[in-house]
Amino acid sequence: MPYYRLKDLIKAIRACKTAADERAVIQKESAAIRTSFKEENNDARHSNVAKLLYIHMLGYPAHFGQIECLKLVASNRFADKRLGYLGIMLLLDENQEVLTLVTNSLKNDMNHSNMYIVGLALCTLGNISSPEMARDLCAEVEKLLGSSNTYIRKKAALCAMRIIRKVPDLQENFLNRAKNNLNDRNHGVLLTAITLIIEMCYKNPETVQTFRKTVPLLVRHLKTLVSAGFSQEHDVTGVTDPFLQVKILRLLRILGKGDAEASEAMNDILAQVATNTESSKNVGNSILYETVQTIMEIQSESGLRVLAINILGKFLTNRDNNIRYVALTTLNKTVSIDTNAVQRHRNIILDCLRDGDISIRRRALELSFALINESNVRVLTRELLAFLEVADNEFKQGMTTKICLAADRFAPNKRWHIDTVLRVLKLAGNFVREEILSNFIRLVSQTTELNAYTAQKLYASLKSDISQESLTLAGVWVIGEYGDILIKGGNFEEEELVKEVTESDVIDLLESILAGPYANQVTREYVLTALMKLTSRFTSISSIQRIQAYIEKYNTSIEVEVQQRAVEYSNLFKFESIRPAVLERMPIPEVKEEVVRQTEDTGSLLDDIGPVTATTATPQNAKNDIMNLFSSGSLLDDIDPATATTAAPLNAKNDIMNLFSPGPTTPTTAPVAPTQNAQQTNALDSLGLLGLGGAGIPSQSSTTSTSTSTSTSTSTDQYVAYNKNGFKVSLNPSKDPNNSNILNIEVTFHNVGVGVTVQNLLFQAAVPKTQKLQMQPPSSTSILPGATAQQTIRVANPQKSNVRLRLRIVYSTPTGAKVDEIAEFNGFPQEIW
């Protein structure tokens, strides 16, 4: 027997003990409803559709009742229309063809004398409107926006928002109506009108200019809400209509962004809202949050921004983690706007690092890194290192990278820099990226005065702990390079530093690393190379023989790379006359900033910490421009090797930061090992011993090339990029015939009026981030009066955008004068591509 009432059906379903029983009841009742629909039983239609909607909400099929819903809508009874429209909204969507049958009913009901029936039609259109329905019924909705009934105006505004989303071109029809509704005293109409205007501004930014004239009106509405007394109709925990206040603040944020006049008009009311809103309850906090967002978006006064950041700082002391999370997230966005104001809340932010909520700790960590500068780097780094010691593993990789990058940028001195990185390696050496390890090795190599200090610190660290891989690799590399300095000892104030180290102690330590449980293939490669290097650092014959015997043990290693190294190193002992020269200390590498890859947990490190400041004599604004506009790279990253027909020098892939290092620099090349005869040289070449760097170890190499263009095409166009002090630089571009994305530029240096010989010529260039640059060495670094020199640069430009060059020209003269100039050139015609 079918259930005649919805209540009976609900009771029967709730009485089912199993899912199978429920399905049986639903199937039986669905069959009875289908039969009733076929019999055209008008009396039971209302009840059947109600039961069908309940079945639909339980997740069972109910699509067969769509037409019955349309029949209910056509009824004259309000109850039938209400249930029919509800069924249409639940059972239909904008993609179904049946929906076209509803258009006429909606149009008729929108012109009905009963405002509640009009509201039903507007509500239905606002939920399921398709683009076709939006176009057909746009005129009716526009007319209802001007209705004298506030209930209808409110519904029509929401319906208009749906129409704009479906057909953005129709928003012009609602501009005047929406603007007029801003004068309405009814809070519901005002709220929906503002919501409609916000949607218009998002869909068409040009609309913002139209509504900027309404800023004074919005300010008056907001002032009335803030200063109004108790209103029972709109009061929410002591705050007058917080929903309307939030909407007004959001619209003011949109209208004030990028417009000084509009921002000025709303500064006073924003300050009033920020100071008079009660923050003890969540309602007040929501208004304060929107106020802060608006203040930071518009062109507000500096005092107002400080007030906004102080509000966020107060949020951080709230016990509710949701509010603290919102505050930290907003501070992360605003820290770049007013860093000094955020710095005042540094202690509270650091306290959040100890919060039990991982999301709070993550946001506080990001903000802490953004606050690091020259004045607080010691304090913040100490706190971050303390957090690193107890941090979850998912934080450690991002933290190690950011701490090292911040130390590299703000280190007060080299010793503090080295100590900080060493501390990171001790605490989280297994989570340090390879590029950070390479940067540390480069730092140690460049800081020659602290080589002994660093070697002893690493030796002492490895004696106590070899479980951190990066610490082990760094220590092994430094000991291999500076083993002779290590055994000489030194006078340092730290108690943990070893005062006297013997050759045997060093060998014992390296052997213990190989025999330890943490050794892997990379570690074995490092240790074998370090042991081999120590044979040219140690003077004891017994130590050298011990190392040789130990290396020979790995001649049969199952790891191919380790075995190859061991065999090569064992054979090198046969060439005693050249072994010390081959194993000579690595040359000091050039300064180079690493571009660290992005991770999910840290984002872009350069975004968090800021651009690396280059120390140069150029003006401050020039430095900022170059950091923002240009990036580094090499053609070798993007060009197929077959298209690169010239050899690039070792320093061809210098980072953009090298362009602005003070003074002229010269490429450092590895010492050339003296050989007795060609047979020995060929033997070494066959063994691959001229590059002892290995995996992760900087290799010694020396590469030279001549300044010849790879392009066979020629061009007579000369573009002057620099002409000052009697020295001129001209550019002659030509497209590479092998690759249309590459532009070869022949640079010619003219000594036209210096009067004396130009010496120590250094020419460097940078390009925008979308392009890549490769430079070949100049034909000469000295230019006689009236003479010229050439140099070739190659620009990979896959996007065919305008080539922009930032150039640095450095040279000196025999009289002691020195020139260091920056120039920018973007005069190549687009037709060159």
From TrEMBL:
Comp. bias intervals (Low complexity): 701-716
Record flagged with keyword Transmembrane: no
InterPro entries: Adaptor_Complx_Large_Subunit, AP1_complex_gsu, ARM-like, ARM-type_fold, Clathrin/coatomer_adapt-like_N, Clathrin_a/b/g-adaptin_app_Ig, Clathrin_app_Ig-like_sf, GAE_dom
GO biological process entries: cytosolic transport; intracellular protein transport; vesicle-mediated transport
Domain GAE: 714-829
Keyword Membrane part of the UniProt annotation: yes
PROSITE patterns on file: GAE
Compartments, record wording: Cytoplasmic vesicle membrane; Golgi apparatus
Gene Ontology CC terms, in alphabetical order: AP-1 adaptor complex; cytosol
Keywords for the protein's UniProt record, in alphabetical order: Cytoplasmic vesicle, Golgi apparatus, Membrane, Protein transport, Transport
Gene3D superfamilies: 2.60.40.1230, Leucine-rich Repeat Variant
Region spans: Disordered: 695-717
Taxonomic superkingdom: Eukaryota
Pfam family, one: Adaptin_N
Quaternary structure note: Adaptor protein complex 1 (AP-1) is a heterotetramer composed of two large adaptins (gamma-type subunit APL4 and beta-type subunit APL2), a medium adaptin (mu-type subunit APM1) and a small adaptin (sigma-type subunit APS1). AP-1 interacts with clathrin.
Matches recorded under PANTHER family: ADAPTIN, ALPHA/GAMMA/EPSILON (PTHR22780)
Protein family membership: Belongs to the adaptor complexes large subunit family.
Descriptive protein name: AP-1 complex subunit gamma
Organism: Gigaspora margarita
